[in-house]
Structures are given as structure tokens and as C-alpha cells.
Amino acid sequence: MDWDDLRIFLAVARAESLSGAGRRLGMDASTVGRRILRLEQAVGATLFAKTPQGYALTAEGSRLVAPAEAAETATAAAAEATRRETGISGQLRIGAPDGCANYLLPQVARGLCDAHPGLEVQIVALPRVVNLSKREADMAITVSPPDTGRLTVQRLADYHLHLAGHRDYLARHAPIRDLSDLRRHRMIGYIPDMIFDRELDYLSETGVETAAISSNSVAVQMQALRAGAGLGIVHDFALPFAPGLIPVLADRIALTRSFWLLRHADDRASRRLSVLAEALAQGLRAEIARLESVVGALPDRCT
């Protein structure tokens, strides 16, 4: 059995389509289909069933996943063992919620690429948890540890959030002296039924039940705040990127959350990924500390 065919098999199993696997592998869909047919002929079984939703594993295909993943791990370990120690190269794909992806990971990626010039860093910003079982990424950053899955979990760092509004909005609207005053103000937050992690339910901590403007994207919420559209909960590390935003009632509305790093359990033996994971963790902690120190100099707007 050809390992390269198994590699293509895993890509289809994870993408659940020939075209998705082809994009990941840099191959056209027809070639992927021919290689899957060749593998099915080699093993004497149908590995996928074509459905309206895509390519679903058959019972025989499901049984092949574990040995194929073991071959994948062994191949990666062999490549790693022969790689020169002068630097780490190749692709690293990191999945993260868009607040982290927008305001932290670009700077961290710069540090990784400076240290390893042959490295290619891909940042996947998604309004959901990245699926490592389908190999959507090599590692993922989340805002809460998972309850299930074959994953290694590492706590990265705490970060802080406060209520904030643009100075233009605050100048045009009623003073804010207490939490009860917030009911007279327009709030910006997440779309309630698209909050994919309970830790992102920030608005409930302000005492205001609904947002007048909402989005599943932190970046969109930030743009609305910069436009003077209302008040919203903001990551402290994002405030330096938004001149004009001022903390409001900072002593009464102060949230703390944590970032967690997830890796597939099979990757624990990979020295390459372990080195990159540690560098990512150190870079993220340093960047949060640097950006949050800037926020300490901002005035609290309570009137």
C-alpha cells in the first residue's frame, strides 16, 4: 500500500470532499478521485460513500483511519529525525478565535518566522473551535479547555476585557456613572445564537440583555465601536489598535478569560511541533503583557 495514497485518503476523510482535499494537497479534484479509486482497488473495499453532504467514510473506510494516521505520524517523525537542526521549516497552521487571530497572532507569527526563516505560518480565524481531528490546523487556540477528544491541552495565558466606547460616542450621549446607566445606551456584542463558547458571553456581565448591533466577529464589533455606534466589551490587548476607544466603568466591569493551546494527541512525539508550540506560547504571553501594559495608561471614562 502506497503511503501517498493513504495521505490522500486522510485528506478526503478530513475535508469530506474531493475538492476540499485537493485544495489542501495542491491537487485537482479529479486526480484526488483517481487516487482514492486506486486505493480502494488495492484494499478491495469501498472507502467512501458519496452523499449530498459530501464524501462520508464507509465502515471499511473508518477502520482505515487509525492505521493511516499512525503511518502519517511515523512519516512525520522520520522526516523530523533527518531534518537539520539549523531551523524549523515547512508549514504551521494555527487556528484561533478572531480576536486572538487579529490582534495577537500577526506579531507572534513575525517572531516565529524571524527565528525560523524557512517556516510558513498560516493563521485560520474562525468563529468556532477548529477541528484538529480533521486536521484543519496543526494546533488551535481556544478560550476554554475541551471536554472530549484525543488532544493535549496547555493553558497559555490569562487576558482581560473591559467595557469601552469611543470618545465621540461618550461625548454625545448620557453620562455613565453606574451600571444602571447602561440601560440608556446602545450596546454592541455577539449574536446570541452564534456564541460558540460560553466564555464569550460577555454582555451578560454588564446587566444588559440585548445588543442593538451584533456580530459573530470581534473585528466587526471593534469597527462598530470605532464608528461611535455604542458601547461594548473589548479585549484589553485590542485597545491599542483602536485609538479613541476609552474604558468605561473599568473598576466595575472587568472580565478575565484564558487562552488554551490544543494539539492532536498523536503529535506529542513531534519535536518540531513541540518547539513551535512552546515558542507560540511564549510569544503570545509576551504580546498580551506588552499590549495590556499600554491600556494601563488609558483614562477610565465614568462620567
Automatic annotation (TrEMBL):
SUPFAM superfamilies: Periplasmic binding protein-like II, Winged helix' DNA-binding domain. The keyword Transcription applies. InterPro entries: LTTR, LysR_HTH_N, LysR_subst-bd, WH-like_DNA-bd_sf, WH_DNA-bd_sf. It holds the Pfam family HTH_1. It comes from the Bacteria. Keywords: DNA-binding, Transcription, Transcription regulation. Residues 1-58 form the HTH lysR-type domain. Belongs to the LysR transcriptional regulatory family. PANTHER family: TRANSCRIPTIONAL REGULATOR (PTHR30579), TRANSCRIPTIONAL REGULATORY PROTEIN (PTHR30579:SF3). This is LysR family transcriptional regulator. It comes from Paracoccus spongiarum.
